[in-house]
Amino acid sequence: MKSIVCVLLFMVVLTMQAWAQTAPYDSAKVIRDARRYARGFRLKDRDLKKFNQAYFPEVSDYFKPTAKHVPDTVMLKDSLYVKTYRNVAFYNAVNQRPVVPPLQDFVFPAHTINGTSRPEYTNPTEQFARKDAKKFSLSIAELKRFKAMHYPNTSDYFNPTAQTASNLALLKDSDYVKTFRNEAFYNSLKRRVDPIGHAFVVVSIVVVAATMLTLFLVAISRARFY
Q: What DSSP assignment string belongs to 87-151?
């Protein structure tokens, strides 16, 4: 009797393993899990400082998931899970601020993106790249795609071209190309898809706040006469 039970249990285990291997791959669930586990990702302050200076891409090991970042360690070998996790972690870092911001950011805020300091280039080639990157602009369709898909600063979307480069010879300079991509990427991050709509919202808020303050002051002034 015991042998029969053991055989049955063994067959059940084999059946479950076979089902797991033949079960359809649910890519949507994999993506959801990766986004959920990467949601709380934060770099340590010292790593965040390096990130803001070097702009290492999402394929960097800094954004690689570990055993505590997966529902099952098997997912660490799933390329879709790892890629999605890295992407979300990277954009968390882009928007992350240090726990204790540097004093100069309070007194002399640099040209920043989401509160993080940008580097001051001393290399002439990098300075040319920063200046040329100001001429870079994604089309509205490309900007919408960028905001939705979050492709990184290494994307070909941010490559310098003959139209943006002040000197065509610089297009073969790796430092120039890297700096141009970084600057074009962060300029695109700051850019709004609908700046007019955003300005309208801001003005509306200011008008409403001013109206409420005026009504409040009038109410106080009238109350003095009673």
A: HHHHHHHHT---SS--HHHHHS--S-BTTBPPP---SHHHHHHHHHHTT----HHHHHHHHHH--
Question: 131 CB contacts (<8 Å, ≥6 apart)?
Answer: 166
With a cut of 70, list the residues of the chain below it in pLDDT. 1-25, 53-55, 98-119, 194-204, 206-207, 216, 218, 221-226
What three-state secondary structure class fits 50? helix
In the block, tokens 């089902």 appear at 19
For residue 183 the two structure tokens come to: 């600057």
Closest CA to 131 of 178, 180, 172, 169: 180
The SS3 of residue 185 is helix
Whole-prediction pTM value? 0.46
8 Å CB contact between 201 and 183: no
User: In this structure, are residues 138 and 156 in contact, taking their beta carbons and an 8 Å threshold?
Assistant: no
Chain segment 55-108, per-residue pLDDT in tens: 677 778 888 888 887 778 888 889 899 988 988 888 888 777 766 655 544 444
Look at residue 1 and give its three-state secondary structure: coil
- Predicted confidence at residue 144, as pLDDT, reads 85
